[in-house]
Design a protein that fits this description.
This protein is of the alpha/beta class and 428 residues long. It folds into 3 domains: 2-101 and 200-262, Adenylosuccinate Synthetase, subunit A, domain 1 (Adenylosuccinate Synthetase, Chain A, domain 1), CATH 3.40.440; 105-197, Orthogonal Bundle (Adenylosuccinate Synthetase, subunit A, domain 2); 266-423, Adenylosuccinate Synthetase, Chain A, domain 3. Helix content is 31%, strand content 20%. The strands form 5 sheets. The protein has a 10-stranded mixed sheet, sandwiched between helices. Strands 14, 16, 17 and 18 form a 4-stranded mixed sheet that branches. Strands 3-4 form a two-stranded antiparallel ribbon. Helix 3 (109-122) packs across helix 4 (134-142). The longest helix has 18 residues, at 158-175. The protein is globular, with a radius of gyration of 22 Å. It binds guanosine-5'-diphosphate, 6-O-phosphoryl inosine monophosphate (IMO) and magnesium ion. 6-O-phosphoryl inosine monophosphate binds at residues 8, 11-13, 38-41, 127-130, 132, 134-135, 223-225, 228, 239-240, 273-274, 299.
Length: 428
């Protein structure tokens, strides 16, 4: 294998950061291809917890190249603060270990303003976004009025581009009761950050093509999860990018045939932050217990994550849509103290059974999960790194999931720490 794609198979926070960190040991290049600093990827290295939002997780390792691809929306301020945060941890980010695509789309402060204003106005029907301006930035990209990183090279031409954005945003700002913005303030803002960001800029599709020709090992790091995908997620309660593995090609400029091995990261139960349907959500003390043991608080926003049982129907669906080859199962240890564990194996709608999650919001609201009960293992699996040390019932749980979703589980994670992981196959 020369290229591996990592994606989340649920609603994000499956433990992608930990798995990418582990796999990046064998990779030459680690690449982000969509999303932005709405992501929160947690690594635990030598007892130190590191939280990354925008930088590829491989940045923490020495002598690895990381790339932020064109499919990402990049907030320059967020990038600068993350670089400063890492520098305090003695991790240097330089043009030696980070390159950013020339054609990456920039998030401006006005995108965040609009994100927050919309959410406030929506009240109860809000999406529950991370408030980082991700959606508005992607909207401007599709509407062909974005500022791209390369535009900072020719700052004299920027006012014209900014006036195109402001023609649109000032109308909206007025309607939302926000102060109008003048072009000069944005030009000044971009001039301020220009010298800090431009040194990282590169023609990254060409760089990746070179890597391919040299048989370098490339690891693509997805953000969010497939159920937050703009096309196949639980729309409208989704993020504004394609989170599917195919996006690794489009969001970086490599051909789809170059993606060798696609790994879906899957939590041993289910969580979700923000609004939207969640068939197996638990509103009782079991849900609370999952949240407590799993420490289910948002990495980015600190919000409490909603918790529920493993939904095998939704995971099977995301696998079929996206072409995932194998699964990395995380947070198995969180289930250690549950005597009964449920797996959702189907849905009932108005007395009819179905084996997929429908797009119709009306049908979604009627979905009732059908569960299969599984005996817990009631033993400590935290830190186990040999499959033979897993209890029988834990192995049965894994087997049941594999049978249902139709692809193998090849990686098992048993704690937040880098070293607590079981590999059943060489990945690179
Ligand atoms: P990501 O967004 O997919 O990278 O996931 P997050 O980092 O937002 O959330 C996953 C959380 O679970 C983090 O706090 C991780 O440190 C933690 N974690 C990852 N794998 C495991 C595991 O196998 N067991 C336990 N108990 N925690 C884990
Ligand atoms: P990682 O990479 C979990 C959710 C938000 C909200 C919806 C839209 O850490 O798994 P946005 O700000 O993207 O417009 O919000 O998507 N969301 C995430 N949930 N993990 C994430 O990233 C998420 N990124 C966005 O909570 O429901
Ligand atoms: Mg996260």
């Amino acid at each position: 294998m020369t290229s591996v794609v990592i994606v989340g198979t649920q609603w994000g926070d499956e433990g992608k950061g930990k798995i990418v960190d582990s796999l990046s040991q064998d990779a030459d290049v680690i690449v982000r291809f969509q999303g932005g600093h709405n992501a929160g990827h947690t690594l635990v290295v030598d007892g130190q917890t590191i939280k990354l939002s925008l930088l590829p997780s491989g940045i923490v390792r020495k002598n690895k190249l990381t790339i932020i691809g064109n499919g990402v929306v990049l907030d320059p301020q967020a990038l600068i603060s993350e670089i400063n945060y890492l520098s305090k941890l003695n991790i240097a980010v330089t043009s030696e270990n980070l390159r950013i695509a020339e054609n990456v789309t920039l998030i401006l402060p006005l995108h965040k303003d609009l994100d927050l204003a919309r959410e406030k106005q929506a009240g109860k029907s809000k999406i529950g976004t991370t408030g980082r301006g991700i959606g508005p930035a992607y909207e401007d990209k599709v509407a062909r009025r974005s500022i791209k990183l390369i535009d900072l090279e020719d700052i004299n031409k920027i006012p014209e581009k900014i006036s195109r954005i402001l023609d649109h945003h000032n109308i909206l700002r007025k309607a939302f009761g926000l102060t109008e913005i003048c072009a000069d303030s944005i030009v000044d803002y971009l001039k301020d950050i220009q010298s800090q960001i431009l040194p990282f800029m590169d023609n990254t599709w060409r760089l990746l093509n070179e890597m391919r020709l040299k048989d370098k090992k490339v690891l693509f790091e997805g953000a969010q999860g497939l159920l937050l995908d703009i096309d196949f997620g639980t729309y409208p309660f989704v993020t504004s990018s394609n989170t599917l593995p195919a996006q690794a090609a489009i969001g970086t400029g490599v051909g789809p045939k170059y993606l060798d091995n696609i790994i879906g990261i899957t939590k041993a139960y289910t969580t979700r932050v923000g609004s939207g349907p969640f068939p197996t959500e638990l509103f009782d003390e079991i849900g609370e217990k999952l949240g407590d043991i799993g420490k289910e608080f948002g990495t980015v926003t600190g919000r409490e994550r909603r918790c529920g049982w493993f939904d095998a129907v939704l995971v099977r669906q995301t696998i079929q849509i996206s072409g995932i080859d194998m699964i990395a199962l995380t947070k198995l240890d969180v289930l250690d103290t549950f005597d009964k564990i449920m797996i959702c194996i189907g849905y009932e709608i108005d007395g009819q059974q179905i084996d997929y999650f429908p797009f119709s919001e009306n049908m979604q609201s009627k979905v009732k999960p059908i569960y299969e009960e599984h005996n817990g293992w009631l033993a400590d699996t935290s830190g186990v790194n040999d499959i033979n040390d897993l209890p029988y019932n834990a192995l049965q749980y894994i087997k049941k999931i594999e049978e249902f979703i139709g692809i193998p589980i090849k990686i098992i994670s048993t704690s937040p720490k880098r070293e607590d992981i079981i590999f059943l196959e060489n990945i690179f």
